[in-house]
Amino acid sequence: MVDIVCLGNLTKETIYFQGRTTSQVGGPICFLAKALTVNNISCGIVSKIGIDCDITLFKNINTDGIQIGEETTRIDIYEDGENTQGIVRSYSGKIDSAKIPRDYYDAGLYIVSTILDDVPSDLIQTIKLLNKKVALDLQGYLRVDLKQSLQLLPFVDYLKLNQKELEIVSESSNTTKSLELILKKMGGGIIILTKGSSGVEIYSNKTRDYLRTIPVESVQTVGAGDLFFGSLMAKVYNGEEVIRAAEAAQKYVHEELCRRL
Predict the structure, then answer these.
(1) Residue 68's CB: how many other CB atoms inside 10 A?
(2) What band does 29 get if pLDDT is binned at 50, 70 and 90?
(3) Strand (E) positions, 50-145?
(4) Domains plus CATH for the chain?
């Protein structure tokens, strides 16, 4: 049995940053899983990859949920300061809900973070109907279909998105009104609004907290948001208050970024 299941496609990434090019196996759930295991969480991965993707690097992570398809999702990432652009070169397709290990449904929390709409929306609904907690990073679905993104909100307990995504979903540039609107569509829960180097806001029906980002020198930041989300959810799963969990997650991400210098 695993504590938390991460759902979304692993990727082969080529990163272009400050004149340097690096390649790695990545994707949101790769960084999520890393943050979870650092926090001593038993983690399982549900993903679809090609036979060319090496999963032996995922030590201490249950990979029974990885499905083999014709190809691995490949993405080129161009990072320049606050601006990051990802171009999907190939796509492994949607995860097959019928192939998910049965014992994965005994987990306590499910984190969905996709490149496109890798995880079928009806699977998210099924998980929620089983009275499980769902955490969702909305970015992938917004790349595909705004309407589908909105339809997912009632099934989400923890929603992560950035300022631009917030404005797209709410069709408003007023942050307070946008947060209120989305929280209403969710029927409660927690919104994690990331603002890059400016910090992060944690919003619920009762509270609105703001944390400044811990400064770090110019460094490649691919996966930083996923490391933060994974660390935060690990600590929440272990019973910490969201704001305290966010503070600890920020420190963890800062340490990880400093290692890239």
Answers:
(1) 13
(2) very high
(3) 62-68, 73-80, 83-90, 109-113, 133-137
(4) 4-258 (3.40.1190.20)
